[in-house]
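Hi everyone, sorry if this is the wrong subforum. Our group has a chain we'd like a structural model of before ordering constructs, and none of us has done structure prediction before. Sequence below.
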Amino acid sequence: MDWSKYINHFTLVPLLAGLFGNFSLGIIIVGLTGLVWGLESGVLFISLTTTLLVILTGNINMEIIFLFTLTLAYLNREYKILNYLDAKLSYLILFVISILSYPFWKYILGIIPVGLLNELNIAGEVLVITGFFLFIVRGKVLLQSNVQRKFFLKYILFFSCSVLGLMGNFLLIPLWILGVYFIERFEEYLNITIVFERKRFILFNALILLLATFGVYVLLP
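Answer:
Right subforum, don't worry. Here is the predicted structure as tokens:
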């Protein structure tokens, strides 16, 4: 069995955070990262860097650090920094630099008033709302490309695990493992391309909107 298919930010980051005594933090950050960033390369960099920096700085506000790592990932994806290096190598270099900069972050976050940091937590709700919006947009793009059943199911699985993560529910780990196993187990059947005729296109769009609405209902007050 190829276990590398089961290892991603959903499984690796929470377990690593658990070694530092903050399993729940890892769960929440991977959920937020998955919802906002999606399936693109860099999702592990964002979630792992954010988790370790928050733990090392001992700060109550993760949104500032999350936005920092999100910005780095975006700039790296768009080849604005380290554009002469392989993507994986550039993410590794950015990860090392970010972690080594934790004393700087600890100092900066330490001089910001606690009251202001608490108010900045509102940014977390804005990020979640943005994540749901991006989920809908990515879904529409996916449906317009006549995607294979396998990739559409993985897209829904990824979203479901992200929502569970934001709920702080550790069940996202077994859900991801079982979901990937199911997809790989029936890969031959799921490799069939979905041709989105009008009625089917409307049905799948309705499914995406329903999932996004349910996620908003569960996560937001």
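For your construct planning: The first helix runs from residue 9 to 19. The chain has a mean pLDDT of 84.
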